[in-house]
Amino acid sequence: MALSSPPIERLIRKGGAERVSRRAATKLAEVLEEYGTELSRKAIEFAHQENRKTIRKEDIRKAVKELSW
Question: CB atoms < 10 A from the CB of 30, how many?
């Protein structure tokens, strides 16, 4: 897993939780990693459509919009 638990636990606490189980942090990390991977694939598609290898923030924005999150 690419995302470690402490930053994920901080995100959950930032959302308002007082306590966070290790399993909850692990599950959120899995979900975020899955979404991030899908988002990256879509951003890569946008860059390739414009004959670029470099992913730009505009590609990420378009991917977020298309995946409607």
Answer: 13
* Whether the predicted model's global pTM rises above the 0.70 cut: yes
Say how far residue 3 (Cα) sits from the centre of its chain: 10
Determine contact, residues 42/67, Cβ cutoff 8 Å.
yes
pLDDT tens for the chain, residues 1 to 69 = 688 989 999 999 999 999 999 999 999 999 999 999 999 999 999 999 999 999 999 999 999 999 986
CA distances, 45 to each of 8, 13, 49, 61, 67 (Å): 28, 34, 6, 13, 13
For residues 9 and 32, give the distance between their C-alpha atoms in angstroms, rounded to a whole number: 13
User: Among candidates 21, 22, 25, which has minimal Cα distance to 33?
Assistant: 25
CA distance 36 to 62: 14
